[in-house]
Amino acid sequence: MDFLDTVPLPAALALLALLDGLSVGTLLIPLFFLIAPGRVRAGRILLYLATITGFYLVIGVLFLLGLGSIIEFAADALASDAGAWLLLVIGVALFASGLLVWAADARRRRLVAAGRAAPETGRIVRWRERVLDERASGGAVMGVAIAAGLVEIAGMLPYLLGMTMLAGSPLGAPARVAYLAGYCAVMVLPALVLLAARIVAAPVVAGPLERLAAWFQRTGAENTSWILCIVGFLVVRGAAQRLEIALPIIG
C-alpha cells in the first residue's frame, strides 16, 4: 500500500487496473469465449466487454459520489494510533484469509485428483454457452457481463483500493470520473489485445489461448489467495512501521 503512495496516481491506478484485468470477469470469461469452437463472435465479445466496463464505471461513480466525506473522516481516524492498530488487525485478517483460500483450494485439488470432486468449470461454461448461443440476444450477453461483475465485485481488491485512492485524492469531480473511465478501460485491455490476436493470427494463438484459459481456470483461487496475502502484508507492514513494531519479516 505504501508503495502505491510513492508513485504518481495515474501509474498506481494503471497498475491496479491491470491486476483487475486478470480477473474472472475481465479475462477468464472472455478467454473462454475466444477458444469456443467455430468463428470468433467479436461483436458479442465486445458487447460483453463494453457492458462489464460500464458496470464497473457506474459502480465507481456511485462509490465516488457517496464516499467523499467518509474518506476524509476515515483518513483522520486511521491517522491515530487506534487507526493504526485497526489497520494491523485488518492486514492480519486479509493475510489469514489468503492462507485459508489457499488451503481450501489445495484441499479441493486433492479431492479432484482422488476423483471425489469435479473441477469447478460449470458456471463459466454455462455463461459461455449462453453468450455464444445462436438464439442469444444482446440482452443475454449484457446480463452475463453484469452477473460476472456482481459475482466478483466484493473480491476485486485492486478495484476497491483504486476507488478509495481516487475518492481521497484532491482531484475535482470531472477529473475523478475521467480517471475512473481510464481505469475501467485499462481493465479490459488484456482481453481486447487477446481478441485482436485471435482475429489477426488465429492459427498461431489458438493453442496458447487454450492453455492460458486452462491455467487461469486451475489457478483462480490461488491467484485470489496471493492478492489477499500481498495486500494483507502491505497493510500490516505500514501499520507496524507507524506503531514502531519490529517484525522480523518486515524489517
UniProtKB/TrEMBL annotation:
<feature type="transmembrane region" description="Helical">
    <location>
        <begin position="180"/>
        <end position="201"/>
    </location>
</feature>
<feature type="transmembrane region" description="Helical">
    <location>
        <begin position="83"/>
        <end position="104"/>
    </location>
</feature>
<dbReference type="InterPro" id="IPR021315">
    <property type="entry name" value="Gap/Sap"/>
</dbReference>
<dbReference type="Pfam" id="PF11139">
    <property type="entry name" value="SfLAP"/>
</dbReference>
<keyword id="KW-0812">Transmembrane</keyword>
<protein>
    <submittedName>
        <fullName>GAP family protein</fullName>
    </submittedName>
</protein>
<keyword id="KW-1133">Transmembrane helix</keyword>
<feature type="transmembrane region" description="Helical">
    <location>
        <begin position="46"/>
        <end position="71"/>
    </location>
</feature>
<feature type="transmembrane region" description="Helical">
    <location>
        <begin position="12"/>
        <end position="34"/>
    </location>
</feature>
<keyword id="KW-0472">Membrane</keyword>
<feature type="transmembrane region" description="Helical">
    <location>
        <begin position="136"/>
        <end position="160"/>
    </location>
</feature>
